[in-house]
Write a structure and sequence with these properties.
Helices cover about 15% and strands about 20% of the residues. It has about 210 residues and is α+β, with helices and mostly antiparallel strands. It is globular.
Length: about 210
């Protein structure tokens, strides 16, 4: 069933309650990501990016926070882990599934020893979002651009993850980088692991207060 996303009414009028916020009102666009199989040529969350083959993939070289316990993992293994848990919901794991999960996250022995080495060296950044201006009318890209790409570092940082934003002209990308990541790694923290989703967006007709 194809249902148009609808932004529910706000419970209060923030500008009426806090008049000093009224000058900060902006028109916002709500993203409605749904699990799917997005391509380079569509807006997505955590999906593939329309990335020029001649442009190096960005890496993070800033200091990373290491908890000393959790090993860095590959996004492919984390996606496989998620699929196994989803498929086994309501039933016992098969021997094969259990073996795979133990490979991804080996059982710990207690007491836990701080045995993980620091996350040394540059770390490939992971896609967060790709938004085409045709899908987000209020995106307001720079002149000649129609595509926004957002990436972040998939490891904890002392303050916050490093993020990068790129504006592009989709028509200018004729040779696409189809294998952008060479043995990517990411933290085991779930917040950095985006599930590939196609996106449907909706711009509300009235401004929204951004704090």
């Amino acid at each position: 069933m194809n249902v148009t996303p609808v932004t529910p009414p706000r419970p209060i009028d923030a500008a009426a309650v806090f008049p000093q916020l009224a000058p900060l009102a902006r028109t916002a666009t709500r993203l409605h990501p749904r699990p799917g199989a997005p391509t380079w040529h569509g807006s997505s969350i955590g999906g593939p990016l329309l990335w020029p083959a001649e442009e190096p993939w960005p890496h993070c070289e800033e200091p990373h926070v290491v908890d000393g316990i959790n090993q860095a993992q590959s996004p492919a293994d984390l996606r496989l882990e998620r699929r196994i848990f989803a498929a086994s919901h309501g039933r016992d794991l098969t021997p094969e599934e259990r073996e795979t999960l133990e490979r991804i996250r080996p059982p710990r022995t207690y007491p836990v020893r701080l045995a993980v080495q620091a996350y040394d060296g540059p770390k490939a950044m992971l896609p967060v979002a790709q938004l085409y201006s045709r899908d987000v009318p209020d995106l307001s890209p720079p002149e000649g651009k129609d595509l926004l790409q957002v990436l972040w570092c998939p490891f904890d940082h002392p303050i916050m993850p490093r993020t990068l934003l790129f504006w592009r002209s989709a028509a200018a990308v004729t040779d696409i980088l189809d294998t952008p990541l060479n043995r990517p790694q990411c933290s085991s923290t779930a917040i950095y692991r985006n599930r590939a989703c196609s996106n449907r967006s909706r711009s509300p007709s009235t401004p929204t207060i951004w704090s």
